[in-house]
Amino acid sequence: MERSRAWEVMDTDCLSNIFRRLDVDDRVLAIPFVCKSWYHASIDPLCWLLLDLRPLDFMPRSPFALRFTKEYSLQPFAFTFSGFLKLVVHRSQGLASHLMFPLVFGPSLDDLVFSSKKCSSLKTLVLPRLEQEAENQLPELIKHWKDLEELEMESKPSSFLELVAQISVHCDKFSGLKMFGHIRMEDSWALVNSLPKLKCLNLSKSCMSKEELMVMIEGLREMESLIVNECIGFQVDDEVKRRSLSIQNFEYEGCELRVDDAFDTHEFDCLHVFGLWG
Question: Looking at the domain assignment, is residue 27 inside a domain?
């Protein structure tokens, strides 16, 4: 009876079901080194459906990087974000459904290309601010994620219009978008025309006018959640509230019509580029 309760002899499927609920660093640095049975359970692809890399510090001299280098007997400074990404993606064996990149240490174009080829089953993708080369290729890469349902971006990419068009063509189940940036009228119409079945939209800390907001409220008729907290360029008046009654969850806390008389959209874009807004 006592032996049947021992963790090391538990069924692999049971262990995998437990380990999949742990953070990525525990699955990589703790679990595999306990015993052989735990190691085999830890590399089960079902443990790697959720790849949330946001809490990890990928700087070369961080405690996480140093411990990883030690545990896996790597040469000093051999630890890289790209190498770690390949490790966890390989363990998922193409089954990963959620991939969240860290905000500080973002993916290169090569990392995104690799992920698009090896993580074709993604349902949720979270991206930090990307370099221009990676932004430009994002619409092309989105074609590989046909099961994508939710996309979160730290900022609106320069290729936004093309990206939305590609999502419309290739991602039939797409229903949720989160980003911030300068939302222009063409962006609002692109969402309405290309993603009419969008259910959740979060544009908090963005810059847009009331007119641009109204286009989305009236055009996205299946929208269930609209979050525009701390936006600038409009205030939610009685007309906006009346037109948005069909939206189950409408959040608009802290919205301001403008910052000051000298504020313009060019200034807003510069604030985003240098990370001074939000």
Answer: yes
CA dist 172 → 145, 150, 155 (Å) = 10, 11, 23
17 in any annotated domain: yes
Tokens for 75? 């040469």
pLDDT in tens, 156-190: 999 999 999 999 999 999 999 999 999 999 999 99
Q: What is the mean pLDDT of residues 117-145?
A: 95
Instruction: Give the sheet arrangement for strand 249-251, strand by strand.
Output: 50-52, 98-100, 124-127, 150-153, 176-178, 200-202, 225-227, 249-251
CA angle 176, 229, 168 (to 5 degrees): 20
Domain count along the chain: 1
- For residue 98, which of 49, 147, 146, 53 has the smallest C-alpha distance? 49
Confidence of residue 276 (pLDDT cuts 50, 70, 90): very low
C-alpha 158/C-alpha 222 separation (Å) is 26
What is the three-class DSSP state of 152?
strand
> Three-state SS for 262?
coil
Asked if 19 contacts 41 with a C-beta cutoff of 8 angstroms, the reply is: yes
| Domain enclosing residue 11, as ranges | 1-48
- Dmax over CA atoms of the chain, in Å, equals 76
**CATH number of the domain residue 35 falls in:** 1.20.1280
Nearest to 202 by CA among 238, 145, 151, 164: 151
CB–CB of 116/144 below 8 Å? yes
